[in-house]
Amino acid sequence: SVIQYSVDVLKGKHILVTGHYGCGGVRASMQDRQLGLIDGWLRSIRDLYYEHREVLGQLATEEERVDRLCELNVIQQVANVGHTSIVQNAWHRGQSLSIHGCIYGIKDGRWKSLNATISGFEQLPPQYRLRPVGAL
User: Fold this and answer.
1) From edge to edge, which strands make up the β-sheet containing 14-20?
2) Of the candidates 116, 22, 110, the residue with the CA atom closest to the CA atom of residue 70
3) pTM of the model
4) N or C end of the chain, less CB within 10 A?
């Protein structure tokens, strides 16, 4: 609803998907513990962890693995936002709209671009490109 209001009502031109290093949710997704209601939210991060397990496993420390998975999660969420009908309908209307991925370091206060930006259909895999309502 926040994205819909920002895009459709406020006509925002940029969406920032922002994560942070050392994220407890990301760390929890890398473990085998049940946490309750949050388990459903962690599922997509667990899937991402599994998908990148070999590369992440090559990193020397748990902190490095957590931080890299934080970055990968932001990049995936940028894609997920781009896959929404809200964003794609804005593009169909010709609205200028970009989704950017960035990450914040809680320990050092530094903000970092992940160079993950989607600004139109051509950057989406074909299976995620939605036709406008009423188009054949």
Assistant:
1) 14-20, 98-104, 111-118
2) 22
3) 0.93
4) C
